[in-house]
Amino acid sequence: MVQIKEGFGRLEHRYLFQEVGRRVAAFHEASPETDIIRMGIGDVTLPVVPPVARAMHEAVDDLAVQERFHGYGPEHGYEWLREAVVRGDYASRGIRVDTDEVFISDGAKSDLGNILDLFSAENIIGIPDPVYPVYVDTNVMDGRRIRYIPCREADAFMGEIPEEGLDVIYLCYPNNPTGAVITRDRLKAWVDYALRHGSLILYDSAYEAFIQDPDIPHSIYEIEGARDCAIEFRSFSKTAGFTGVRCGYTVVPKGIQGRIPGGGQLGLNALWERRQGCKFNGASYISQRGALAVYTPEGQAGIRENILYYLGNAAIIRDALVRAGLHASGGRNAPYVWARTPDGIDDWVFFDLLLHRAGVVVTPGSGFGAEGRACFRLTAFMDRARTVEAMERIEECIHGL
Amino acid sequence: MVQIKEGFGRLEHRYLFQEVGRRVAAFHEASPETDIIRMGIGDVTLPVVPPVARAMHEAVDDLAVQERFHGYGPEHGYEWLREAVVRGDYASRGIRVDTDEVFISDGAKSDLGNILDLFSAENIIGIPDPVYPVYVDTNVMDGRRIRYIPCREADAFMGEIPEEGLDVIYLCYPNNPTGAVITRDRLKAWVDYALRHGSLILYDSAYEAFIQDPDIPHSIYEIEGARDCAIEFRSFSKTAGFTGVRCGYTVVPKGIQGRIPGGGQLGLNALWERRQGCKFNGASYISQRGALAVYTPEGQAGIRENILYYLGNAAIIRDALVRAGLHASGGRNAPYVWARTPDGIDDWVFFDLLLHRAGVVVTPGSGFGAEGRACFRLTAFMDRARTVEAMERIEECIHGL
C-alpha cells in the first residue's frame, strides 16, 4: 500500500476556517432566521475595478478568436506582467528586482505552500505565533521541525529574534492576523539575523497595499542584504479584489543559495524555476491580463480608493471595540483588527457567544497559535453598512455581558 | 544555510521542452527568414467555443459588480462544476463518481505534481517509458526510486505489467507521447495488478476527449475495483482549448487508503482535500464558469467539432509519414502521432535536421525516455493549412535524405 508522509498523521484535525465554517453552518441550521454577518474570513467584497474588468473582457475576446488565441503562457508568467511588477512595485520605489526574479502564479497561498518543495525535511522552521495557520500545517505535512517565534503586543507583534540559528523563517507584514506592521529597524534586525545564521526568510507581503504610513517598508528588499536571504510573496487578492480571479507573484532573487546534503550549493531562483516548470503551467491568461491593468493609472486610482474604503471599515471596527472597552490593535496599515476578549475569556467561547447572541462571525485567536489565546480577529473587508451593523451588534453584546 | 532536497541535485539538467525551445530560438536567430512551423509542443490553437467565451464574459461581469462579486471560491471547486463533471463525464457513461470525489484545479499538470505531496520518499514509483517527462522529474526531486515500465510498439504501447509490487504506477491513455490507447482487458489487468499488490495507479486521462473507438474505456473507473486503487486526472486544456484558461480536475475516490509509517491508514480523498486546503485557493471563478459551459449541449457540440478537426490533422500527419516511408502510429484516438526516424537515426539528430532543412519542429522521442530513442512525436494541434505545409516539408526533406 502506498506510504503516506508521516507528517499527515500529525496534523491537527481541522483547519481553522473549516472549524469556523462548521460552527457557523450548525448555527445557521439551528437558527435559519438569524442574519449572520461574517467578519471572520479575510475575503474581499468590493468588485474588481473597471480597467481590470475591461482587460479581462479583452482577454476572453482574444481567446475566442483564432488570430489572438493564447494557449500555454510562459510557466513563470508573461513577460509584460513580470515587467509591470518590477516597474510598478519595485523600481518605482528604487528597489532592485530583476524581471527573471519575478514568478507569476495563481496566488500567494499556492506559492507559500509549494516553495517548501525545494527544502529537505531536515530544516528547522521558525514560525511566528500567532500566524496564518497554513505556514504550520504545510510544514507539519512534510515532517519539518518547527520553532515558534512569539509575537507579543508589548513588542508591537514584530517577533522576538531567536538566539539559535533557524534555517527558514516566516515573516508576514502587514501582519495577518494581528494587523501589525514592522519597522524598518526591526526588519533590518531580521535580515541581519538571517545573514548571520544563513537563514532564509519567507516574507509574506500579501497586504503590502494597505501600508499608509510613509516610514513602513513596503518590501523586504528595501533592507540591504535581503536579496541574499529573502523570498517575497505578493498577491493581487487583497490589493485588487482578486480572491476569485487568482493571481499573485513571488520574487526569488538570484543571490540566494541553498546547500545540497551531499555537498555543493544551488541557487533558489533556478530551483523554483524548475519546480514551477514541472508542477505548474502558468496562471490564467485572463487573470494575468487583469493583473496588468492594476498597474495602469486608472487601475492604481481604483485600487487605492478600495483600500481606503477597507481601511475606513478597519477604523470603524477598532473604534467600536475600544468603545466596548476592549483592547484592540492593528487596522491602520492592514485590513485586520486584533483584540483581546472581554475579561480574557476563552476565544472559542467568545466566538460562540458572538455567533449566537450577535449573529457575527469573528476568528478565534487561538486558531492562529498559542499566543492568540483570548484574542480574536476582525476583518475590514465587509461592506460599510454591514461592518457598522456588525460592530453595533458586537458592542451591544459586550455591554450585555 | 537552508538545506535543499537532495533530489534536486540529481535532476537532469534540462527539461525536454526547454531544450527544444533553446534549439529553436538559436536556429531562429541564425535564420530569421525561415518560417518555422512548431509541430512539437502539445498546445492547442483553436479558440474556445462561443458558449465558453460567453460564460467567461458573464463571469467577468459578475466580478465587476458588488451584488454578483465572487471572492474565494471553495478550494475544491464550485459545487455546480463538480456536479457537472460527475453528470457529464461519469454518470452519463454509467460510472460512479461522487461529487466530493471531484477536485477542481488549475490544471492536470499541477495536480499530477502536487499529488506527490501526500506520499513519502520511500515509495517505489513505476513510470512508463516513453512518458511525459514531468512524471520522472517530480519524483526525482523528492528522492523517490523509479522503475521504468517499458511500453513497446509490439505490445501496442500498453505497458508491460511488472513482476514486482510497485507502490505507485503512472498510466496515461490516450497516451502522450505515443498516441496509443489502452484496451479494456489491459486496463483491467493493470487494476488487478494494483489490487493484488496494493499499488496506487495515477491515471492521466488528459486526452480522454479524443477517444472515438467505442471499445476504448474513457475512464479507469469503468474497470471494477479501480475505485479502490486509482486516482484519475483530467483537464479541459486539450478537451476545450483551456491551455491558457487553466482548469482541470482530479478524482480521488473515497475508498483508496494509504498507510502511515508508524502504523494506521488514512484515506487519500481526505488527505488531498487537506493538501489542497493548505496549498491551493481554488481555480479562477472565470475559468470554472468557462468549464461549466463545456457541459452545455452547445459546448459539447463545439468541442466535438474541434476534436474532430485535430483528429483530421492527425490523419494528415500519419498519412504523410507513411507516404514518406516511415513507421507511424497513434493519432486515431489521440492528438499525437509517434514515428520512427528514417533508418533509425538518432532522434536529436533528426530533430536538428528537420529544424534546419524543413523549418519544422518535432519532439525528439528520447526526451520521453530511453524507449523513445530514434522516434519522434508530432502533434495534431496546429491549424490545418500549417499542418499540411509542415507535412509537405517533412516528406520532401525525408525524400531528399
Instruction: Based on the coordinates given, report the CATH architecture of the largest domain in chain A.
Output: 3-Layer(aba) Sandwich
Overall mean pLDDT of chain A stands at 96
Total count of helical runs of at least 4 residues of chain A = 12
Order of adjacent strands in the largest pleated sheet of chain A:
2-8-7-6-5-3-4
Instruction: Please report the two chains with the greatest interface, counting residues with C-beta closer than 8 angstroms to the partner's C-beta.
Output: A-B, 87 and 86 residues
Structure description:
The structure is a homodimer of 401-residue chains. The first copy, chain A, has 401 residues and is α/β, with parallel strands linked by helices. Chain A folds into two domains: 6-47 and 298-399, Aspartate Aminotransferase, domain 1 (Alpha-Beta Complex), CATH 3.90.1150.10; 50-296, Aspartate Aminotransferase, domain 2 (3-Layer(aba) Sandwich). Helix content of chain A is 38%, strand content 15%. In chain A, strands 2-8-7-6-5-3-4 form a seven-stranded mixed β-sheet, sandwiched between helices. A four-stranded antiparallel β-sheet of chain A has the order 11-12-15-14. In chain A, strand 3, helix 5 (134-142) and strand 4 (145-150) form a beta-alpha-beta unit. The N and C termini of chain A lie far apart (55 Å). The model of chain A has no long low-confidence stretch (mean pLDDT 96). Chains A and B meet through helix 2, helix 4, helix 5, strand 9 and helix 8 of A and helix 2, helix 4, helix 5, strand 9 and helix 8 of B.
